[in-house]
Amino acid sequence: MKTKMFAVFAALALLLMQSCSDDKNAVLKISRPLPNIDLGKNTFLIDTSKDTLLEISSGSTIMIPANSLVTADNKAFTGKAELTYEEYSNQASIILSGIPMQYDSAGEVGHFQSAGMFQINATSTSGDQLAIAQGKNVTVSMASSIEDGEKPYNFYQFDTISGEWKYLVTKSAEPAAPQPADTVAIAGDAKVVKNKSVKTISDFVFDINVNYHVFPELAGLGDVMWKYSGNKKYADPEKEQWIFDTNWPVTKIDKDKSRPGEYIIVMRSNKDTFTTSVVPVANEMLQPNEAVAQIDKSVDNLGVIEQEVGRQLAENTLRRTMAVSSFGFFNWDYLHFLINRKTKKIRLMSDGSELSSHFRVYQVFLKDNAVFELGRSSKETSIPVSPDQDFVMLAIGDNSEALVARNGKALYDNGNNGINDVAMNKTGITIESEDDLLSVIYGF
Q1: Which residue has the higher pLDDT, 273 or 32?
Q2: What is the pTM of this model?
Q3: What pLDDT score was predicted for residue 109?
Q4: Which fold does the domain 31-176+318-334 belong to in CATH?
Q5: Strands, DSSP E only, in 56-163?
Q6: Which residue, 368, 365, 354, is CA-closest to 409?
Q7: Domain ranges of the chain
Q8: Sign of CA dihedral 264, 267, 271, 272
Q9: pLDDT at 260 (0 to 100)
Q10: Are 269 and 251 in contact (CB under 8 A)?
Q11: Range name among 84-88, 164-168, 269-273, 348-352 with the lowest pLDDT average
Q12: What is the distance between the alpha carbons of residues 300 and 110, in angstroms, rounded to a whole number?
């Protein structure tokens, strides 16, 4: 009997060791090229005893039914849980996520064209992994600007052990409920800064410094400062000193319809929300007559923002909804297809020499949301090209340096069936954010 028990324990120990080894391998399946870049992970503290609807700044929502989470040993979990959610909706976030975009179907390897990916997970407040109870589902409704093609997108889950995508279902996108057109959304880690160098007698004036890579045409807002409107319904920033020590990933500006000329600013981080009522203020470099013009310019700039954001919200008119029975990485995708496709051999060059293996290389298609990773090889390789689909070759160095080669579709017509040297040009941009990488890809 003891011998049998020993054999059982030995088998369990071997299985555990293999499982731990698989976990280590799983980490290697997803390898972010620049792991320190924040991709906008959302973190929520939820009460698992209640139905909970979470709203993401992108317009996506997550529904967690009451009593739907269990511990690792499949026991019902009660109390507070920390749920995390991260979206990858464009070529830059897909690259920076490090998630493989290859799909093996019946021995044929293809590359995904994405309508949006996300990662969702939940732990206890002490950090213990949680799971979704058997027979329960968490519903993720992902906002999207990408329409279905000739057929709807497929839904996949990534197996972090095998490193492969598993097909789950094919489902059409649905229309999203319209959002108010008079809401202004500014992306990019706004920072609230105290500013006392203004021609006011006693007013407390502050700036909101915004990353304008997302909306470069809105740089005129850099001329605008703000002060508390005095509307007692909202908090006075001067009395809330903690807001000046926080980066705010989401900042929204709404017109106050009940008080013309005033605006409501809402700033959100993963942990906090701050709302106040403000009016624009001209800076001290302006003469009195210029001050009025400057305020008018501020209002005009806000109008530009509303038009731009309204356009973007109008583009985000679709929603892809799926009930998932486990946590992990998920993807709305189908295989990328190029019309009149050819295969070209290329060799990537930089400063007259073959590209260093310190760079990870990607073929990024501009029209479709598709990214092919070529890895770190500095030797020749083959890529698909088409006259109907432009792409850039992108290289990201271990030091965050970015190199790029544009007008990739020109390779289709060059008549060279041998090795084509592709010059990777320095951009002078250090990739520190998703916006930085987007600016490299699209050249703005």
Answers
A1: 32
A2: 0.65
A3: 74
A4: Chondroitinase Ac; Chain A, domain 3 (2.60.220)
A5: 61-64, 69-70, 80-88, 102-105, 108-124, 131-132, 138-144, 154-159
A6: 365
A7: 1-29, 31-176+318-334, 183-315, 336-442
A8: negative
A9: 79
A10: no
A11: 269-273
A12: 48
**d(Cα 274, Cα 27) in Å, to the nearest integer?**
37
Neighbours of 139 (CB within 10 A): 14
Average pLDDT of every residue of the chain: 78
Q: Which residue has the higher pLDDT, 328 or 226?
A: 328
pLDDT of residue 297: 55
- The answer for residues whose C-beta is within 8 angstroms of residue 24's C-beta and 6 or more apart is none
Identity of the amino acid at 387: P
- Residue 217 pLDDT: 42
DSSP string, 360-424: EEEEEETTTTEEEEEET--S-EEEEE-TT--EEEEEEETTSEEEEE--GGGGGGS---SEEEEEP
Fold of 336-442: Immunoglobulin-like (2.60.40)
Q: How far apart are CA 348 and CA 392, in angstroms?
A: 12
Of the candidates 132, 127, 119, the residue with the CA atom closest to the CA atom of residue 48 = 132
- Comparing 75 with 244, the larger pLDDT belongs to 75
Q: Would you say residue 14 has pLDDT above 70?
A: no
| 159 and 167 Cβ atoms separated by less than 8 Å | no
Q: Quick one: which of 58, 103, 27 has its CA closest to 370? A: 103
Grade residue 78 by pLDDT with cuts at 50, 70 and 90.
very high
CA–CA distance, 164 with 334 (Å, rounded to integer): 14
Can you give the pLDDT at residue 150?
83
CB 85 within 8 A of CB 42: yes
Q: How far apart are CA 158 and CA 273, in angstroms?
A: 33
| Strands 419-423, 342-350: pairing kind | parallel
> CA 361 to CA 328: how far, in whole Å?
26
For 46-69, b/e burial (b = at least 16 CB within 10 A) is bebeeebebebbbbbbbbbbeebb
The two structure tokens encoding residue 231: 């509307």
Note the pLDDT of residue 91.
93
Structure tokens at 232: 């007692």
- Could you give the percent of the chain with pLDDT greater than 90? 40
Mean pLDDT to the nearest integer, 329-345 = 91
CA 205 to centroid of chain Cα atoms: 32
226 is written with which tokens? 């703000």
